[in-house]
């Protein structure tokens, strides 16, 4: 899943001529972290997924589920322009995220989501670490079995 999101981020960055460094600054992460997101090498925190979707004017659903690489250049341009037009339309209606009730509600809900997701993200990191450690322990035990078998064979041959 993260490889797909990463691929989409890379495509969107290219289409909007945004460097990894610039995107990293907007997300408060390093350029290398953005590169890791794009390669699918790391879990992308939900708040970063939300920010990235917002930066490119897409829904989270579109960012996460779409296969933007399969879209033609013109369809991708249309997708981005339609979302930009939608944002501009909201602006014409007087809905401005920075100074509107909707904007304040969005920021408030965003802070609640971040607050609630932090413990979940920490728990997921711990679970993933335990899974990784379990895999390493299994691999180590397999290597020990192989070494013991090798030693036993050498002792029999002697």
State the main characteristics.
158 residues, mainly alpha, 434 Repressor (Amino-terminal Domain), 0% strand, Helix-turn-helix transcriptional regulator, Cro/C1-type_HTH
Low-confidence stretches: 84-96
Terminal CA distance: 53 Å
Largest sheet: none
Helix share bin: over 70%
Question: Number of DSSP strands?
Answer: 0
User: What name is given to the CATH topology of the domain at 1-71?
Assistant: 434 Repressor (Amino-terminal Domain)
Judging by the overall fold, what is the CATH architecture of the domain at 1-71? Orthogonal Bundle
Helix segment tally: 7
CATH superfamily of the domain at 1-71: lambda repressor-like DNA-binding domains
Instruction: Please identify the structural class as seen in this structure.
Output: mainly alpha
GO molecular function, one term: DNA binding
Domain HTH cro/C1-type: 9-63
Protein name: Helix-turn-helix transcriptional regulator
Keywords: DNA-binding
